[in-house]
Amino acid sequence: MSKQTINSALKQLIKKGYIKMSIPEKNHRLRQINFTEKGIKFAQEYIDVVSDIENKVWSNLTFDEQNTLLNIMNKMNYIFKQEIDSLIQN
Question: Where does the pLDDT of residue 70 fall: very low under 50, low under 70, confident under 90, or very high at 90 and above?
Answer without folding.
Answer: very high
